[in-house]
Q: What sequence folds into this?
């Protein structure tokens, strides 16, 4: 036994910090009080960019001798609570009821931060400083624009000469039970708008107009029916979904001039922005019957390319820790949405492993206290593999 705080104690304190993006809410300050006394050099840089809120971040490093540099990464910012009256327990109370810890951010992802913090503190208390470096890279801008967070914190650290060996992001990766899955990559995400321009006119005289709505309907139908691919060894098939079709027309007797359709595609590593642009435009142009219509495509700049971590050493070692603690062999997964791992992969191999994510972003977000202990044990076991204790 050690005097290191438990993951539950840390998680409760973090949840009690109302750190809704972009507010720091006291969460980073609390982590500072945990890490500074045990020798971490803590920095809390604030990053800014026009049109976005300023965001405070945290980088803490403990270094001793020569060896690898392991990074634990995550975010303390959370999404809004919604109607607090609908919560069983107050969303920032951090209360435990019937073996469950309730509160905004318990699953996504203050519980993960609490677990790897507790694991590191336990390791230091039992074994002392490792041969190498341990860092915490924590942002307050993952649930927001992701502009003044991890992407800038990584560059800030690189400018100071930091070099990372491996990284673990504590996002909730397990669909149903601890040990289900390790994220070894992520699909890419790309959004865009198709615009069809015709000729406005009166509905009673359609021969004098060129209706873009019917053309857009054909485009949406054709692209939605198309098969992008059948998946790869590590990725599921790519998927494009239309999320809106708009003409901005409130009149009943007016054929509009323009129609737009917005889409998002979650894609595997067979695709990039240029290939997807070419695919969408080819299918759209196939539906244009004459020069009376024009079609254009506008893509939103994306920082979410598909990626796959290929470090067998990192993946295998962590998988062994998961199996040892849970008795389960984790799937090596790439599904789900995006995360800040998409930025970290440019600096070092990165995997993601955290709690069960069933309730993230929901009213009554909660996690099992037992799962929090299990996650801490997994991180601790991995630390002993990554930094073998002396003697």
A:
């Amino acid at each position: 036994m050690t005097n290191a705080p438990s993951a539950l104690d840390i998680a409760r304190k973090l949840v009690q910090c109302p750190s809704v993006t972009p507010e720091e809410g006291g969460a980073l300050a609390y982590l500072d009080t945990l890490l500074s006394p045990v020798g971490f050099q803590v920095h809390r840089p604030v990053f800014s960019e026009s049109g976005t809120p300023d965001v405070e971040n945290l980088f803490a490093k403990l270094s001793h001798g020569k060896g690898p540099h392991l990074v634990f990464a995550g975010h303390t910012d959370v999404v809004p609570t919604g109607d607090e009256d609908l919560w069983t327990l107050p969303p920032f109370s951090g209360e435990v009821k019937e073996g469950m810890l309730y509160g905004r951010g318990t699953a996504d992802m203050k519980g993960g931060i609490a677990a790897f913090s507790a694991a590191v503190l336990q390791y230091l208390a039992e074994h002392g400083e490792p041969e190498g470096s341990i860092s915490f890279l924590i942002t307050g801008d993952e649930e927001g624009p992701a502009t003044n967070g991890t992407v800038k914190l990584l560059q800030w650290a690189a400018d100071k000469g930091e070099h990372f060996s491996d990284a673990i992001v504590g996002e909730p990766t397990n669909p149903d039970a601890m040990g289900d899955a390790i994220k070894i990559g992520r699909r890419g995400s790309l959004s865009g708008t198709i615009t069809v321009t015709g000729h406005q006119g009166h509905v009673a005289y359609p021969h004098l107009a060129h209706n873009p709505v019917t053309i857009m309907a054909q485009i949406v139908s054709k692209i939605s029916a198309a098969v992008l691919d059948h998946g790869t060894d590590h990725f599921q098939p790519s998927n494009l979904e239309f999320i809106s079709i708009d003409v901005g027309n409130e009149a009943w007797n007016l054929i509009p001039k323009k129609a737009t359709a917005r889409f998002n595609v979650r894609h595997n590593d067979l695709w990039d922005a240029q290939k997807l642009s070419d695919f969408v435009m080819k299918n759209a142009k196939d539906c244009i019957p004459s020069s009376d219509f024009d079609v254009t495509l506008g893509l939103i700049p994306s920082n979410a390319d598909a990626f796959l971590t290929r470090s067998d050493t990192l993946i295998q070692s962590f998988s062994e820790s998961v199996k040892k603690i849970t008795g389960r062999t984790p799937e090596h997964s790439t599904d789900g949405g995006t995360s800040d791992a998409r930025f970290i992969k440019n600096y070092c191999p990165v995997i993601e492993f955290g709690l069960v994510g069933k309730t993230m972003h929901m009213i009554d977000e909660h996690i099992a206290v037992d799962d929090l202990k299990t996650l801490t044990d997994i991180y601790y076991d991995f630390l002993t593999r990554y930094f073998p204790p002396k003697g």
